[in-house]
Amino acid sequence: MNETISGVRTRFAPSPTGFLHIGGARTALYAWAFARHHQGTFILRIEDTDVERSSPEAVQAIQDGMAWLGLAHDEGPFFQMQRMARYREVIGQMLQAGTAYRCWCSRDELDAMRAAQEARGEKPRYDGRWRPDAGKVLPAPPNGLDPVVRFRNPKDGAVKWNDLIKGPIEIANAELDDLIIARSDGTPTYNFCVVVDDWDMRITQVIRGDDHVNNTPRQINILAALGAVLPQYGHVPMIHGPDGQKLSKRHGAVSVMQYHDDGYLPEAVINYLARLGWSHGDEEVFSREQFVQWFDGQHISRSPARFDFDKLRWLNNHYLKAMANERIAADVSVRLARRGVHTREPANAKIDLAAVCGLLKDRSSTLEEIAELAMMFYQVPHPSAEQLTETLKPEIRPALDAFAMACTEVEWTREAISAAIKQVVSAQRLKMPQFGMPMRLLVFGRAQTPALEAVLALLPRETVVHRLRVGLSHAL
Ligand code: GLU
Q1: How many domains is the chain partitioned into structurally?
Q2: How far, in Å, is the centroid of ligand 1 from the Cα of 208?
């Protein structure tokens, strides 16, 4: 099961045209884990040849996302724009070897070719008019026109590979026409750069999204023409939303760093993405290390995965509960600062944020939710007038006054506070919610909190008394 293929080299090759997409991150995770499983090498390559759409911010976003997820690369990042000389060199070699040729078809000619083919009911394709086949006389190159370079794709036979995920795939060469590998200005095209990089970087397994499956036969043919050792290919199916459509913003966050901002833990996201479209028996909750140990490239689903936001939230809650309160507090204090609460300020420093997080984490799915709930400890409460009138009935006030009094002398622990509440409630012959509701509204500004004695014990005694008295006087 755990045998090691020696010399495994995988890569993640994103195009830096936006944020790091959660689907891309899953592909990266699989490529990374496969390399780690085999004690191999994981390479980061930035495919930035689409200059119009690529940006340094997007490169940064990819690196931030990978770093946050803990997917460290061993080599790179390599940038395709810095490898132009190498691509040109290989194009020159292929022209020499006759595996590529120059083609002087103008755009008008190509348009006419397509129109004629369509009129005959044929699939539009390059008709090979500049392809130097044996015994063929080529036209004289026109003056003043720069040629493109085309790959001389084999005419017969088929390209076959045994996809690590999809199984055997076969495409007839007759389906593939002679791909342009260099434009007339000499710049190499997308598929060609990928091929040269995979070759130079000695990639052994190309693990990528199955939106690239159509490129693979062309890439295999070019690699074969270069005399390269072919990598294995594994095409990971797409991720769909819960409705079966391609995952998009409409369904929820698609950018990895949005999950960070929304308060997810990298451990949970890694666990979730690993399990999304891959399985190891019935295992649902496992660490990154465990995943690496299990992940040998098998058991990846052949059909698209469905993103289940509820399951991710459930997993995140699981990891939050297991996380040290101090670590949660360190993150939550940054989120509170964004809300204008600085936990180091003297008044706020009296509140033990780690203990607050410890109490709130059970009922929260994200760090953002913890921060949102934690605000009730730091913020002056502003209960709604309606809720107050509804709950703060005249017969309740004496109990609240009595409790405010009791607060000044009771030992400030959860147990003692609980006993004091019970005493006041029974002395005034009330039911617990009759007391609890207005108490929560007056001290925390909200109708729902965790157990009352628990939240009260986390506020300084004087804050509770103060909020209660102010609240009662306002509600006269
Ligand atoms: N740059 C491609 C993309 O972002 C990936 C190419 C590949 O993995 O071969 O979709």
Answers
A1: 4
A2: 7
